[in-house]
Amino acid sequence: MGEEILSSAVVVSVREFDPNKDRESVEAVEKICEVGPSGKLSLFTDLHGDPICRVRNSPTFLMLVAEIDNETVGMIRGCIKTVTCGKKIIRQTKSAESISNHVPVFTKLAYVLGLRVSPNHRRMGIGLKLVQKMEEWFRENGAEYSYMATENDNVASVKLFTDKCGYSKFRTPSILVNPVFAHRVKTSSKVTVIKLAPNDAELIYRNKFSTTEFFPRDIDSVLRNKLTLGTFLAVPCNGKYGPGPGPENWAGSEAFLLDPPSSWALLSVWNCKDLFTLEVKGASRVRRVLAKTTRVIDKAFPWLRLPSIPNFFEPFGFHLMYGIGGEGPEALKMVKSLCGVAHNLAMENGCSAVATEVSSCEPLRFAIPHWKVLSCEEDLWCIKRLGEDYSDGSVGDWTKSPPGFSIFVDPREF
């Protein structure tokens, strides 16, 4: 995509990733960048030989590599989709009554992820150049906003995007992670859980969640993706949907939306295990032995339902819960049951963890089981408006809008 002289002696070229010739060099840079601090626990990612796996399922995506003298020294990934950035009120008159409905306001949003620069080539402006080139592609494809996610304490990344690239701190969601035990989690006998067909799930999501910030307009593509293992609806088991654990009286989403129960909850499960695996390195022998002991006890005596630490010290997979929502006084209980279903599904699929990402203001987060030591209570999303010539639309400048109670985390970008 072009060359630029960073200094009198260094010329960097940025071009599109070529899987036929760049795969090995990109993997080498990834490994170098993931070397953790000595004596501390670090999380490593194995992309299974597919450097674009984390954006491959997005509607539009691109990966760029930076080279100096034909040596790969950095890379960046980006994708574009249409999401909800706010809502507006539509008033209709029916039978002499005025009815107000909230409808979503959509915008074209770009996402930056996977920025890496080789440690030997940092502080040379390569990261900045990769971001700028990616933003050029965003603008060419009509994106109005761009955002990125990073750890709140990643000072170098935050400084690059806020000080040099013009991004502003926007949202601080929480990543909640729970280990998968060797025993099944028991769910409430007072809750009926129904696995929905994709069309039923889509109808409920569009009706109940379409005005949620970051809701993807192509939710149908997400729900029908082979990595979505199912969407699960929890309702009271003593209500209209039958007294037992099965969906005997399920009449479909249209009937549900016309007359929903007093409380209900919904979530979907995404299989990250088939995209990439993680591994914790830097653990002491004592930590490993203690973790193994908990697993041995849990496996030998599953009826005790003791919490155990999976083997995070070898490559492991996880599932992501997304689209979590619900209504009613017992919604928290419903969400807790759905999390139990997600845990048991992950156990059946050989995963070691279940994760989700929710707004720090999300009321339902209190029902989501998680271990604090595994979770990130304050992730950081930064956003940038890509052009001042865009219309302010119904919500004005999205970058200046206050946070809502909920966000919709797209599993294709986690």
From TrEMBL:
Domain of life of the native organism: Eukaryota
Keywords: Acyltransferase, Transferase
Stretches assigned to coiled coil: none
Keyword Acyltransferase recorded: yes
SUPFAM superfamilies registered for this protein in UniProt: Acyl-CoA N-acyltransferases (Nat) (SSF55729)
Signal sequence coordinates: none
Transmembrane segments: none
N-acetyltransferase domain: residues covered: 12-186
Family recorded in the similarity comment: Belongs to the acetyltransferase family.
Protein name: N-acetyltransferase domain-containing protein
Annotated organism of origin: Vicia faba (Broad bean)
